[in-house]
Amino acid sequence: MKEHNRRLVEQFRADGRRMGDSPMLVLTTVGRRTGRPHTTPMMYVRDGERLLVLASNAGAPDHPDWYLNLVANPQVTVEVDGEEYRATAVVTAGEERDRLFAGTVEQYPFFADHQAGISRTIPVVALAREADGG
Questions:
Q1: How far is CA 59 from CA 54, 113, 125, in A?
Q2: How many Cβ atoms from other residues are within 10 Å of residue 80's Cβ?
Q3: In a domain? residue 58
Q4: Beta strands in 9-116, from DSSP E residues, in sequence order
Q5: Ordered per-residue pLDDT tens for the chain, 134 residues
Q6: What does pTM read for this prediction?
Q7: In the chain, how many domains are there?
């Protein structure tokens, strides 16, 4: 999987930080144990000025590493739609999380299948662009 993701990120960057019409971004987090950058391609959903990513881990019982990294350090880098910028990752909670998850499931029903197969609640993370855009 790591090799597949590496090639996907390479292609995404070569194509001007786009993946055709697919809602894909590249998220770089800081490793919670290593302090090194970790880059992960993933799909996203727009929510006004924010981008939402779901830590579904394809329905696996554990949270994905990228999620654990951003919980430890919410300062991330986002590459999307031809640009790269710093953002703050905010794990949504309560009614907001439920509303955002339901809205995402309307667009992408497979997330409901991911949730149905596991006991953990799939986190919905909002990526808020930092004011300086840098």
A1: 11, 8, 16
A2: 21
A3: yes
A4: 24-30, 37-43, 45-47, 50-54, 75-80, 83-91
A5: 678 777 877 776 777 676 666 789 999 999 999 999 999 999 999 999 999 999 999 999 999 999 999 999 999 999 998 899 999 999 999 999 999 999 999 999 999 999 999 999 999 999 999 986 44
A6: 0.88
A7: 1
Does the residue 134 lie in any domain? no
Dihedrals φ, ψ of 63, to 5°? -65, 150
Show the tokens assigned to 132.
């300086």
Q: What is the DSSP string of 1-21?
A: -HHHHHHHHHHHHHTTS--TT
Structure tokens at 43: 């799909």
Which tokens hold the place of 120? 């953990």
3-state secondary structure of 128: strand
